[in-house]
Design a protein that fits this description.
- The chain is α/β, with parallel strands linked by helices and 148 residues long.
- The chain has a single domain, classed as Ribose 5-phosphate Isomerase B, Chain: A.
- The chain contains 6 helices and 5 strands, in the order βαβαβαβαβαα.
- Strands 2-1-3-5-4 form a 5-stranded parallel beta sheet, sandwiched between helices.
- Helix 2 packs across helix 3.
- The protein is globular and about 40 Å long.
- It starts with a strand and ends with a helix.
- The mean pLDDT is 97.
Length: 148
């Protein structure tokens, strides 16, 4: 299950991504927003991060104008490894090397087809484990030291 959330700047892209997920029979939970009316992005990044923390969803997709603000908020939550992605290559390495569980996409910088290709690659790439898994454990140790 994928949690998906956007602010007004990512709303149109979110709606197109939902169509793709429906076509591929990929389950998702839409956590808002519901229109292009101005809203504050931290609320939606928080909802997606909490859905993952609570075990309601395994992954998350966040959409705003740039992807940066959403990434910052999501990474404030323990267990979340979020990255703003702009290329297929960044999607591949975010998953294979860092086991990123939340991606943020910028509606001002990506076309619908680019965003879908990034999602497809992110979902289809396996985490390498090995030395990369040891790095994830290091990240978890840092979280345990610094996050409640």
């Amino acid at each position: 299950m994928i949690a998906i959330g956007s602010d007004h700047g990512g709303y149109k892209l979110k709606e197109e991504i939902k169509k793709y997920l429906d076509e591929k029979n990929i389950e998702y939970k839409d956590l808002g927003t519901t229109s292009e009316e101005r809203v504050d992005y931290p609320k939606f990044a928080k909802e997606v991060a909490l859905a993952i923390q609570k075990g309601e969803c395994e992954k998350g997709i966040l959409l705003c104008r740039s992807g940066h603000g959403m990434t910052i908020v999501a990474n404030k939550y323990k267990g979340i490894r979020a990255a703003a992605l702009y290329t297929e290559e960044s999607a591949k390495f975010a998953k294979s090397d860092d086991d990123v569980n939340v991606i943020a996409l910028g509606g001002d910088y990506l076309t619908i087809s680019e965003a879908i290709r990034i999602i497809r690659i992110w979902l289809g790439t396996e985490f390498k484990k090995g030395r990369y898994e040891e790095r994830i454990k290091m990240i978890e140790e840092i979280e345990n030291e610094n996050m409640k």
